[in-house]
What does this fold into?
Amino acid sequence: MIRHIYVHIPFCARICPYCAFYKDLLDRSQTWRFCEAVLRDLDLQRAHFAISPSTIYFGGGTPTALMTAQLEFLLEGFRRRIDLSSVEEWTMEANPGSVSARKAAVLKKFGVNRISLGVQSWDDELLKLLGREHSAQQAEQSFHLLRAAGFSNINIDLMFSLPGQTIKQWRLTLEKTIALQPEHISAYCLTYEEDTEFFLRHARGEFRQDADMDADFFEMAMSMLEDAGYEHYEISNYARSGFSSVHNRAYWLGKDYLGIGPSAVSTIGMQRWQSVCDYRTYIERALSGKPPRASSENLTREMKRTERIALSLRTRDGVCASDLRHFAQQTNDFIALGLLQKSKDNFVLTRKGKAVADSVAEALL
It folds into this structure.
């Protein structure tokens, strides 16, 4: 039984220079056909798998770049095709520049109960650098609009270690976010991903990454958000009690999930596959009744174990000690260095260890 579904909507009004996810500029002549293709893709999956989701996540791209009628068409299509009675969490990613009261009302009407709002920063100059289409004022208006629509579970996405960003700017962004009292906050360190404009600028020496500054930004986020009552339950994620992301926790626990849409990845049992990373090809295949898969692989137990360690280590619960039984020397060394600690039958990162989580994980894989 498939309990977790991810839907990728690749359209963006503007391409952000740091984003490495599959995306394309919004083409209104293609969006209706795309929505039809998504539902046809879901039909193809229903023919092979029993689907009764407990979580659904619409990501992108920018799902809210679709018109209100198109969002309604997609959500109604899901409701007609699969049993949604067990859905605990239905998340929709939204950009402040594409949120309206009418869209918010439609999302609420059809069962979306969690919004992830891509604010990134409350500083207008940094927003311009990031290529965002919204201002800080628009982001705040969007947040209040979503509250007025009845959403009681809102995540605010933030980024730190941006080119030229100061500690003071980061503190102000955290203070502003805390003042709005969202239920969940994601705070990501900027990474320079291949095939992005930022990667090229970094390679040319225009941008520099400073590990010490990264650590200072990260420490400030941990301190301020924990002091404000948020639980640091995963390296980049903080939540009020009872509001950690159910969908993301399923990923981190290695649960099966089904991906719908171009570039979406599915992992079911010991098989993993990815849909084509071109929405035009995706549309043509799905509407002609052909599976839009681009690649697939058979997973091994060792691959599963490695992924479980890498993902679990980032969480508050840590890694099951039995998964690290072949790494006794490494775990003892990390404990001696104050980076790991034993908690019941698990190894968990200490506060010091969280700042170097990727390095610790790399040594244990």
About this structure: Residues 28-46 form the longest helix (19 residues).
